[in-house]
Amino acid sequence: MGKWTPTREAPEPLEGNVVAVVTGGTLLWFVMFLVQLPFYGWFESRGLLWWLWTCLAGAGLGLIGIRYVRRREAAIRRAAEENPATADRPGGTGGPGRTGPDAEPGTG
Length: 108
Hints:
With 108 residues, this protein is mostly helical. The protein is built from three helices and no strands.
């Protein structure tokens, strides 16, 4: 197979209320854990106890995710306040010093 080359430009990333989405997902994982908890014996007798612990792990990782996205949002807000010229860009970032594959030429 040859090297894959995109035929179209990639769309801009969706910016939404990421904190709400991650919080909702975390709550969902924790609720699923609580719903399964009364059936601990049933899961254990069938060798499916990992379902219970997967839900608890999802809730725990979600707590880390909530902290991460809240800090990210705060950093984006701070960057927009410090440099209002970049506030109109997606995510409010992308000013001088930005590096990576999507950086503008000559900025990194």
